[in-house]
Amino acid sequence: MVCVPPHPHANLRRAPVQQRSAERLARILDAGAGLLDETGYEQLSTRAVADRAGVPIGSVYRFFPNKRALVDALAERNLDLYAERIAGRLDAVPEREWRAAIDAVLDEYLAMKRTVPGFTLVDFGPPAPAEGAPDANLRVAGRLAALLAGHLGPALKEGGGDGGEGRDTGDEPDPRLLRTLLVCVEAADALLQLAFRTDPSGDAALIAETRTLLQAYLARTFD
After folding, report:
1. What's this model's pTM, rounded to 2 decimal places?
2. Which of 17, 18, 3, 15 is nearest to 76 (CA)?
């Protein structure tokens, strides 16, 4: 059985309580994202992040023990933003319209890939995950399973499962839906990496092939 890793920021030393602290954390993450685009992960340093964010180095260490933990938190923020953007798109998609729902999932990923600082290098996981770290693609599939339950869940051909409310509720996802979406995430991840290696803005033909592959694979179950 596929199990989704827990959601909380495991590497955040101290969760912000006051608004000012939350704003400082956001500045630190923004600074880290910008520096990733400029220097890459290997050259990233907590000192450079502190300087860019305009905070003392101690403020960075208050939240993160090292740069890996900072990048992990940035990846988690990216996943939260991705889920939020998809949820907004799904408001306009009728339930059971799975093709439109999958288009929204792919389109929002592409939009973030092209516009969100640091996303090219760190989308939903660090470039070099630590040994034993939660699998990033499994985390993504779990969030998508919760978000898409109303659009995909009812169409599962085998067995029950009411599909939920189609929102990211945090409930345990249907294992069949989770497995199906994990296959999609793994396949799309590989193809889109190739698309953006071929063309920094994303090779249009490879992106179209990715969309076709996802639609064809899902049609076996949902048509």
Report:
1. 0.85
2. 15
Contact of 131 with 143, CB cutoff 8 Å: no
CB of 52 closer than 8 Å to CB of 27: no
Quick: pLDDT tens for 24-59. 999 999 999 999 999 999 999 999 999 999 999 999
Domain spans in the chain, listed from the N-terminal domain onward: 75-222
- Contact present, 133 and 10 (Cβ < 8 Å): no
Backbone conformation region of residue 96, classed left if phi is above 0, alpha if psi is from -120 to 50, else beta: left
* Domain range 75-222, CATH architecture: Orthogonal Bundle (1.10)
Burial (CB < 10 A; 0-12, 13-18, 19+), residue 95, is middle
* Residue type present at position 184: C
Distance CA 12, CA 177 (A): 30
**Do the Cβ atoms of 210 and 185 come closer than 8 Å?**
no
Give the integer Cα–Cα distance in Å for 187 and 216: 12
Q: How many helices (H) and strands (E) does the chain have?
A: 9, 0
